[in-house]
Structure formats: structure tokens, C-alpha cells
Structures
1.
Amino acid sequence: MVSLVIVGATGAFLFWYARPALKAAGWWGFFVHSIWNPSAGRFGVGGLLIGTIMIAAVALLVAVPIALSTALFINEYAPPRLRRALVGVVDLLAALPSLIFGMWAIFALEPHIAGIAKWFSEHLSALPFFQLTDQSALLVKSTFEAGVVVGIMIIPIITSVSRDVMSQVPREQCEGALALGGSRWGMIRDVVLPFGRSGIVGATLLGFGRALGETIAVALVISLVFAPQPHVLQSGSGSIAALIATQFGEANAQARSGLVAAGLALFIVTLIVNMVARIIVNRAAKRGGSRIARITVAEAVDDMGI
Amino acid sequence: MSHQVITLPGAGHADVLSVTHADEPKRPRSWSRRDVVELLLSAVAAAGATGTLFVIMDWRSLVAATIWWFLLFVVIYRIEVGANHGPIVAADRMMTATIAAGGLICFALLVWIVSFVIGKGLPALRPGFFTQDLSKVGPLNPGGGALHAIIGTLEQVGIATAVVVPLAILTAVYLHEMKGRMAPLIRFIVDAMSGLPSIVAGLLVYTIWILQFHRGFSGMAGAVALVVLMLPTVTRTSEEILRTIDDGLRESALALGAPQWRVIARVVLPTARSGLVTAAILGVARGVGETAPMILTAFGSPKTNLSPVTSPQSDLPLFVWSLIRQPNATQIERAWTGALILVFLVLALFTIARVLGEASFGRSRR
């Protein structure tokens, strides 16, 4: 109940101060249209909403394989000393400010991204997302680049949550699998991964939620466009959080009301993602076996403190 | 793994090996010289193939080269081990290589990012950076520094920490020591707070503090946003720390007739002290780098502003954020130096927290 009040209060305050902009733009139009012209009272975050979700999706594609490998390596392969060192590395990766990731991405990662994006656009253009509308288009400051950076940033949370879940596997089952002559990978495939599946899904969704709210790194990396940009490799992308961060300084009262409304949209989306995550994890827990896992998800998230 | 698995059906033509080594004890996870040779050969073969590919295609990127090398390596390694030991061992080895790569990637990323920041930030680091602000230097002039930002960071993070630490420890004590009826609820609220995107936390403080109560942008507003963001971290870490304390300690104190508040104040908290300090430091490490909410609350300013309660105040993240987006080399250089200080702060806080944490963990275990 109290939590509902807190969530409700956040929603209510944002909503109250978003009202002028929402009224000007139309309640439904604000979430559907893709335009940002505060002086004319025209607001719409439709394109940015799509961009935000696309960046987070790319981030998951980058982060999940790396995070799962790291989690398995730390849990099942690494000798104790290496394990402690690697846990430190992952924690430190989580502790670095978002700002640093963004700066590193612009100055160090961007040239590599351009090359990789070029290769994708030449060899995988059969896939609609990898097509370019304009062959001379810039291939940096794109959804892809932002997705890669955000992906790197959410590796720690996915690693630590799935690691905690997978360390709950009953050790006898693992040893049983090995004793039956299974290889280590066989044990992971047939015992560890099935046991940890719901936790891994939960970890992935938590990573998705974090990716949606990621602000500064995205704001530094992308060049913000308001129209939906389905071509992930091409310059220009949208992100609600980045919009708020980049526009706030120069905005007047009317525009700031629009930004609060955009923040409200972000708040609603992250709330929905978190709720869906909780429902999935709870349902998996009901099926049994994952009760411990569910508790550790919540705890591990807070241990990370990202 | 090689010798153990070969007796399984489908293990291919590796049975010869099992005959020759039949009576030796099997150490499934040890690596024979032959295994190492296979690994190295595959790595070299993949490197050769990658090199050829890059020369032919005239590619440059080291990152792309590494990706290609790894893909080729995994394929070659799988074929080679498959030919020598059969498919089960081959799958196992291939996945071992893939999974180990995950850990390696994390390590490489961390080293790359930190070394890059050091390389970019160190050239412009001079003593003046800590004693001057940006109010009197033009964007193109040399000189100027981050004094105003450092003062802002100290004040904002200091105020936030002073509020967060007692509050978080009290909450953790309530959650774990008193185990009150409200505990699950409060835990849930703390959970909900930790899921809040930092920019939304900033907007929340902006609407309440600045729009509702007309306080104006200030370091204090920034500190309030930091409290919202640091509180969940410190609370849950503190709770974990309290959990590591042996129940025997509490029970003996209670058995000696001490009331609960005394047990907490004289036994539990002193035992947990270094662990709680760790929790606080981790919270500070998180707060130091927060940028997004500060844009909406502290706002930033090029002048030194000693007062956290009146008029906008800068801090290190805001300093870097405002300069890195400007199109001239002097400003960007300043931003990198600011970033270097930030990274140094985070690394230092993190190391201290880890050393202290290990000390407290070792003691509570004994």
C-alpha cells in the first residue's frame, strides 16, 4: 500500500506539472506523435519512445551473451582467486559513472562502431533493420552505437543477478551430472541453465529496465531525432531520457512542462517493464524450485546498487 | 575432460586413448600437454586467418579483428578437438572457450575505459585545476579549473551522505534486527526506489522542490536527489552486512539480560562497523558520478558558489557534462581532466570499500 502511495505520488507530481504540455499536445497525441516544438505548444514523444525501446533491445543483444558467459565463468570455471578478481571487475564496471561510458564511447568506440556498422550494412542488408535509406549516411551516433554502450553498462546487473540465481543450483544435481559422465558444459546445459532460467529472464528484464532509463551515456552518444528511426545503423536515434537531459538547460517553462511529461512517459514504461518482470519471476517461482532464486534476484539487485 | 568422456557412446574415434591410459587415474579438469598444444594451434591458425582476411580486405579496426579472430578460433578449435576427442569433448571445450571469453571481455572493457580516461585526462592535469574556477577564463583561453565543481561535489555528496547513512542504517536495523511488521513493506519500497531511473528521480525533485516549493536550483536540491538515489543502495548493503553477523553474539548479549536497544547499540553496530562504513562508501561512490538528476536540480554554474542552499551550483559530473559537448579542444581537454578526477574518486572509494569489506567479512566469519 505504502509503496503504491510512493509510486502514485511520483506519478501524481509528474502528472500535475506535465498537464500544461499534455493539454497542449492532446493526451493521446503526446504518446503517438513525433514532434517537439514547445513554442508552438506541439509535443509528442512517439518516436522517442520507439527509439528508447530499440536502444534497450540492442543493449540486451549485446549484454545478455556476455553477461551470461561471465556469470557462468565466475560460478563454474574460475579458480577462487580469479573469481574474486572478476567479481571486483564486474562491480567496478557497475560503479563507473554513466558519463565516463558516454565519453569513452564517443572518443574510443565510435571509429570501431562505424566500421562494424558498415560491414553489417553491406553484408546483412537483407534484414530490414540493417538497411540504409541513404548510402552516404553517417553510421555513427546511431541506435546501434547507443545500444552497444548501454549494453556494456548493463552487463554487471545481468551478470550479478543471474550469477546469484545460478549459484542456488543444488550442488548434488551438478555433481550427479558430472558423476554420470557428463562434461562440464553438459552439466551447465542440462542442470544449471534450466534451473536458473526464470532468474535469467528476470535478470534480463531488469537489465532492460535499466537500459530504458539510461540517460547520460545515450545523450552523449546519439544525435537526437524525433521521428521514429527504424534503421539502427544510421545516424540519429531517439531516447526520452536523453531528450530531458539535453533540452532541460535551455528550455522555458512551457518546454520544461513538456519534458516532465516525457519523464512521465518514461516512468510509466519502466514501471510496466518492472511489473512484467515481477509477474514473470513470480509465475516461475510458483512452478517451484525458484523460490530461493526469486529472493536472490531482489537482493542481488540491491547489492549492485546501480 | 578428455579421457573421462571417451567411454560414452558417440565419443567418436578417441577410444584408442582410453585403452592406452586405461589404468591411470582420471583428472577430468586437468589439461594435458596435448590439450594445450591444440588450444595454441587453433589460436595461431585463427590469428593467421584473421590477419590474411584483414590484409586482403584492408580493414583496420582492432575490435573487429578480435571479433573475427575469436569466431574463427572457436570454429577451428571445435573442429580440431572434435577430430581428436569426439563431439562431446569438442562441445565442452568450445563452450569453455566461449564462456571464458565473457570474463575476458569484461576485464578488457574495464582496462580499456580506465586507461583511455587516464590517457586523455592526464595531460591537462595541473595544480591550477584544483585552485581556479571557470568564471574568469574564456572557452578558448588556457587556465581555469574545477575548483567550483569540486566544492559542489563535496557539499552535495557530503550533505546527501550525512542524511543517507543514519537513515539507511536505522532502516537496516529495523529490517533485520527488529524484524517489525512493516519490514516486508519497507523492503518493497526500497526495492521500488532502486528501480527508479535516475533522471526520473531528478524530475521528481525538480517538480516537488523547485516547482511546488519555489526553492530554485541549488546544491541542496541536488543533494535531495542524491538521497533518493543513494538510500536504497546503502540500506540494502547495510542489511546484508547485519545479516553476516553471528546470531550467537546477539543471543549471548540477550541472555546476559541486555535489552534489545543495548544489544543493537553496543554489540551489533560496533561489530558491523567496518561493514557499515563499506556500505556508506559504496553509496558515496554511486552518488559522486550521478549526472542526470543534477542537471535538473543543481543545474550547474561556472562560478564558485560556496552556499549549497542559494543559486545553482556546479559539481564534477555537471562540469564534465557541460564541457564535453562543446566544440573546442580546450574545453574538451578540461572535461577529460574532470573525468579523470571522477574515475580516480570512484576507483579510490571502491578500493577502500573493498579492503574494509574484506576485513569485516573475515572478522565476522572467525
2.
Amino acid sequence: MKLLAYFRSIAARFFHRAETESDLDEELHSHIQIRADDLERSGLGRAEAERRARLEFGGCERFKEEVRESLGGNFIETFLRDVRFSLRLLRKSPGFTTVAVLTLAVAIGANAVVFGVLDVMILRPLNVPQAESLYGIEHGNEANMYESYPDYLDLRDRNHSFDGLAGFTISPAGLDTGENPSQAWVYETSGNYFDVLRIQPYLGRFFHGSDEHGPNSAPYIVLTYAYWQAHFENDRGVVGRTVRLNKHPFTIAGVAPPDFRGTLVFGMPDFFVPLVDQELIDGASTLDARATHSVFMALGHLKPGVTPQQAAGDLNSIGAYLEKTYPTSHGSTTFVLARPGLYGNRLGGPMRAFIGGVMLLAGLILLAACANLGSLFAARAADRSREVALRLALGASRNRILRQLLTEAMLISLGGGALGLWGSLVLLRALSVWRPISRFPLIVPVTPDAKVYAVALALALVSGLLFGMVPVRQVLRADPYQIVKAGSGGPSSGHAGRRITVRDILLVVQVAICGVLVTSSFVAVRGLARSLDSNFGFEPRNAMLVETELSMAGYRGDQVPAMQKRMIDSVAAIPGVESVGLIGRPPLYGGGFGAAVYTDQTTDLRPSNAAATAIRFNISPEYLSTAGTILLAGRGFSWHDDKNSPRVAIINREFARKIFGSTAGAIGGRFKLRDGTRIQVVGVAEDGKYMSLTEDPELALFLPVLQAPMSETCLVVRWNAVRWNAVRWNAERYNRDPQQLAAANRTTLRNLDSGLPLFLETWNQQLGLALFPSRIATVSLGVLGGMGAILAITGIFGMAAYSVSKRLKELGIRVAIGAHPREVLTAALGRAFKLLAFGSAAGLILGILATRVLASIVYQANPRDPLVLAGVVLSMLLLGLLATWIPARRALSVDPLTLLREE
Amino acid sequence: MPPQAQLLPGTLDLLILKAVSLGPLHGYGVLLRIGQISAGALLIEQGALYPALFRLVRKGLLKASWGTSDNNRRAKFYALTPAGRKSLREETQGWNRLAAAMGSALDAQLEEI
């Protein structure tokens, strides 16, 4: 009943507002009149009586306000009135409003973008039903998830914890639908893959475990929705059609649902093929090999009620069984469970650390922005102290004034939030279609959802509250009488110069945050610069990579090296090509082949007895000279190092040092591989980077292709920049040269075999993958650092400008009695500079501590680098100078006469 | 900030109801009546009366209508509704109980405990 009355009253207030207002006015007026009548009767004149009556009554507005409050429906109405009033005020100071809204937009936008990425990469589970119980199997002793196929089968069949265990690996394949053969990325999966993931097909059917009857028995492919859309134009008739995959016929069984993008967050396959067809796709089968890691990841749903710890225990007992049964191929075998989306902790660890770190920095940006706006608001409130005092004196309650100030803050923060969100959506859309590396299906599949909007809104509200609260104390303490009497300067601001105020603390916090951001971006940029400068062990400039997979074109066994020789010879004949070398898979390719190395004396070749693991490269005789890898001792390979001659190898310096003690001692030395082959060292090459830029020195082993053939083929084509350009010398042509060379390469190789799937790019382009993490880190930190710097500039500028304008009169007097410019500056800005120095120092120290996490991503990120330290100090100084320049000019140009006249 | 600290919270409403129960009154009349019946002991800030009056109208305890005052001025007159009469009765009993309890508690002597 009461509630009903309340709502009725709200409605009445809304619809009859003007009526009630005039009613109230009239009633109060009549009250005063009647009282005046009384007073008149007691002998006062009419005018005096009315004056007395009004005085006795007190502030009309205050009581009206109380009446309005007692009438309910008031909250909304007051709020609307506050909004209107605030909008009017904000429109009156467009500069302030623009700066404030933009500052917040940038800060909130940055947070929304980072959160969008964080959400997709880390928070959101894979797009499969019951993703919370989906786990991948990771090795206990290293952050990696690969298994051999026989091990996978053992794990699948012997475990009691998983509700089915699927496995998959990623591989390139040439798909020929009858037209131009194109290269695609394939998940080779276990037959039960879709059933384990509990997914239903969008079209047709999936393949199942029951389709597998031994090697090459299930020639079915399942297309992803995106690939089906892009390459089959949504043709529902594709089901049942036969396509050729690496020249072998496969039947399209079905299409996966649109929201299923495979079981890795960042890489999307084009289609799925049963792993049992490995030989058809990769040209060779490793399904029987216990020691070859043909399964990239094994994953499955835990049975209800089984914890990850219990499952790990279960798997470890299988590990112990494998260790005991296959001692030649298994060392210590333990397992843990990890989330599959980011390949367990291998990528997940550093990515979580990095994205978390960036999120933290973005949060700091927002905090800095709030500090910035907080001091702006405090300054504004101080400037408005006269207005506030008047309103207080006229009977406004402090609550009411605070509410209005907060409304103003909220309007700005919501405006900033909306603008920031809009910007971040644009950015996130761009991110989601971005293909950072053309060679790999690497994606950042950000699809901003309600969570991103909610976060942006929450951040806007929280930050509005944060900076809106700053001037509250100021208003609460304000004494209207004193302020009105003393003029806008007010007694409180007269003391502000001597004590530590909220504004000072805000400025120090803000400068410190900016220091952290600037420090980390410097560290990242410096790290990237160093990693670009570092010695890779080869020369990527003026070289092109021509990649192909001979098994895709149907080459087998001895045909492979023969074809490779023909490819080298024909490409070498192209004019402008200086030399051509061949390598199976180049270094820093994003994955390589490891080989266990045993000393010559070892007879028991079990994994635990290996002397070391080296990274294996299969190369042609010309590779080292073409790649620019320096041979330190011994000889290179020749085409006579073939199957009929003794096995030889070239090792790198680290290998020589670790196994043979020295470079000189290594030549002629022997070592063994896992299969027992004895190999003699004929040469020692310089060290290089092989797997990642951040790796410690690794052992590398080069084998001649004729003795260790490999169908994966990469030609390194070095062109002679000078001669190639001398033919048609002009700048434009110069840029297009690699493209012309690529075209020439393509024609030449297509003439050899038109069915070769080719992928050409310059070596520098290919290195994009290796440099990708540090580039991303540098760009994001650079952007954040820049934002921090801008915020610091505006913050310091605001503070300095404000303190100069507040003390203009004092400065004028100082100038009038003959102060030096330096003394004037010290008086005006000394405090700002002290705060700046203090904040910078704090920021630098915090930044150095914070950038430790960078070291794992950015190569050679060392925060204690003197160049970084000098850079940070210098840029903070510059920022300070920049920000105080205008206020300092203003302080120096003070004209005492004008000032004093103004009073 | 109530100007008269001795006026306990909630008592103003009760006083208004009592004043109006003796016959319809306009706002100023309520003030005069309260001064009269309390023999001048209770003074109420003039403006502070109106929020209370509007509150009581909203609660349905008073009803208001425009009329003409003794000295021929247009004024809003307040009268008790049946709900207001009931409320006044209950509140008065409650107040008397409280006052009696407070009085005896404050008069208590050591030997009575």
C-alpha cells in the first residue's frame, strides 16, 4: 500500500511538477504574509514587517528542497536537474571537458582492448561443450605436450580418468579441389577427436574412432566452417565430394560448426583429417615409432568427479609402465594436466605473465588518468569555491553540492568510457582480422562480448567515483563565510603551498606510474633493438626462402634428394642469384628437430644416457656459405658425402665445446645418434640462434641431405644486390627486386614440376615469427609508455599552471621588490619539480622491479642497462621541462603593475 | 540541523497532528497553535514546518485544501484524515507510555532497585 502511494507520488511529481512547485511557492508566500500581518498588528510598518517575517522564516530554498525530498520521486528529479546543470557547466569550459573526456577515453579504451585480448586468450575457455573439464596432458619435467603415437594409444587405453582421450597434430598440406592447388593447415586428429570434444557437425558427418582400420584407412576430411565459406562458397553439396590432398583422394565428410576453431586459441586449422592417414599427408608414417613425437597434444574431458591431481596420478602410473617397458625410448615419464587452449604452460605460462603484466600496466594508466583528473577536479573545485560558498550560504546542503560534483565527474567518466569503448571495439575488430604472420594461421580471435562492455562501464564508473571523490573533503571543509569574505583565493588555498596536499600526492603517484610505464617501454624497445642486432648465426639480408614439401607433390625415397639437386641447380641459373643452398627446415622457423647425441663410447643408447640434445639441420653442401654461416674449422660438405661414403657431420662451436672440449679437438672426433649410427665430425661452424631468440647457446648438428634425406625442403636463395640492381638501376625497382626474384624462382620451379606447392618470402619476413613476441611486447609497451608520458605531461602541466595562477599575485609582488627570474621560478615551480623528481625516482625503481617479467619474452631485456636508465631519466626530465615550459613562461612574464591594478 | 535540539526526532509530526486535531489550520496557524498549547515552551523554526506537513499529507494522515484565512488571505488549510486521527491516538498512547517509563526510570532511587 505504502509502496503504491510512493509510486503514485513519484508519478504525480513527474506529471504535476510545475503545479506542485507553484503550490509550494504560494503556500510559503502566504505563510510569510500572514506572519507579516501579525507583526504589522503589533505596530510595525508593512515593509519592516515583511522583512522581519522573511528573516524569521529563514532560507526558503532550503525548506523547499527539504519538502521536495520529503515528497519522494526526488532522487530522479534531483539527478536530472544535476545532469542538466553539470552539462551546462561542462559546456561552459569546453577545454577542460575535452581534455578530461579524452584522457579517460584513452585510458579506458586501452583497458578495454587489453581486457578483450586477456578475455579471449586466457579467461575464455575453448569453444567446446563443458570446456571446464577439458584438459591436455603435459609432461611433468618440461612444459610440453607432445607424445609418440604408440604412447598416445597407451595413454588413451590404459587411463581411468578421461572420458575418452583425443590427440592431434598440426601439419601443412596441399589441397587440390580441381583448380589451383593451395596450401592449407590441417589438424591430423585421432578418429575420436570430435566425439571426445562432444561436438556435432554443422553439415554432413564427422569421422569417428570406428572409421579407423589401420594406416591410411579413413580418407575423410572435415572442413572448418570458415574454410568451407571461403573456399566452397557455402555450397551444401560439398559433402561426399572427393578432393585431392597431397595428391591423394579424400572424401569431404562434413563441415564443423561455425564457432569451433580447433583446440588451440591462437591458431585455426583449415580442415581436419584422421591421423591414421599420416603417411598420405606427410609422406611417411611415424605411427609405429615410440620415440617420434607425432602427436602434438593429447586432450580429453575428465570423468565427472575426477580431479586433475587424481588424473595425473593415474597417468603417472602409465608413465611408470612405459618407462619400464620401453627403457630405450623413455626416460623419466611423468605427467601433469594443463589447459589445452594455449598449449599448456609452454605458451600459456609466458602469455599469461605477459598479458597479465600488460593488463596491470593498463590499470596503472587508468589510475594515472584518475589521479590526473582528480587534481584537475580539485583545482576546479577550488576555483569554484566562491560559487560553492554562495550556494551553501543560500541554503544548499553539502550533500546536494557533492552530489552535483559527483554527477559532473560521472558524466565525464561515462562520456570518456563510451568514447574509449568505441575506440577499443574498432581496435579489437582490426585485431581479429589481423594475420600477423602470413605463413602460419596465427590469429587473435577477439570477439568483444558483453564482458568487455561491462568492464568498460565498470571502469568508467569506478574511475568517475575515484576522481570525483578527490574534491569532496575540500567542499566539506569549506566555510562559506570565510570564502566569501576572503575572495576566491580563500584562506585554505593560502596554506596549500606549505603542506602536503592531496594534489601533491596525486601528482607523485601519477609521475611514478608514468615512470614505471616509460621504464618498461624503454626496456622492451632496447631489448628488441638488441635482438635485431644480435648474431643469428646466419645472414638474413638479401636472402629469400623458397619452401616446399616434396611429399605433397608425390616424391618418395630416392626421388627426393634427386629432385632437390635439380631444384638447386635450376634456381642457381637464374640471373642475379648469387648462390643457392638447401636446408630441411631453417633455423628460427618456429620449431625444429632435436636429436639425442651420445659419446662414441656409449653402448647403452637409452635416453637417459644421452650426452646432450642437439638441434638437427639437414643441409646441402652449399647451405653454409649461402646462409652466411661461418665455418670455424674443418671442411664443409660436398655432393660426395652420400649414402656410399662414411657418415659425416658439421657441428657448432657449442657442440664442440660441450662434447669434445674444444673446436680444434672436435675435428675428426666421433659421436653416435640414437639409432647407433657413428658419425665423424668434419667441420665446426659458428654458434647461432636456432629455436628462439631468447634461448641460451644450443648445440646444433648439420647433416648432409644425401646421407639424411628429408622431403621438407627450403631453398635459401641469396641474390647479389649490387648486380641485380645494376641491370635496372632505380629506387622503385630496387624495392620490388625480391618480388621479381620470387617470380623468377616460381617460374623456374614450376617448370620443373607444376604440382609443387611453393611458399616464397624473404628470410627477414620469415623471421617475423621468431621476432613476433618481442615485437608485440615492444609495440604494446611502447604504446602504454607513450600514454603514460602524455598523462604525466598533462598532469604536471595542470599542477604547474594551477600553482602559478594561484600565486600570481605573490609572484608579482616578488618581481616588484626586485626578485631575480631564477628566484621567481623557484618560488613558482620549485615544488612541482621536487614532486616530479620524487615521483620519477619512485617510478624508475618500481619499473626496474616490474620489468623482470619482460625478460622471458623480450630478448635481452635488462632493466639495469645503463642506456635504459639514462633514457628513462632523460625522458622524465624532458617531460618535466615540456610540461612546465608554459607555466614557467607565464610566471616569468608576470607584470606586477597589471596584477595589482586588477585587484 | 534541527534548531531546537530539545525537540525529539519524530515529535514534530505528533505535535502537528495534535494541533490540527483541534480544528483545521493553515501552516502559520499550526505554529501558533503549538506555541499556544505548549504554553510557549516548544518553538519550531517556521520553515521546518513545511517538510513535515508535506510528509504527513503524503502519508495520508493530513488532507490539505485551499481556503481563506481570518485576515482574508488565501492559505492552505490542513485537517486530520481518519487515518490521521487513528495515528494520533496510537502515537499519543505510545508517547505517554514512553514518557511514564522514562519518568519512573529517571526518578528511580537507589533503594528501589
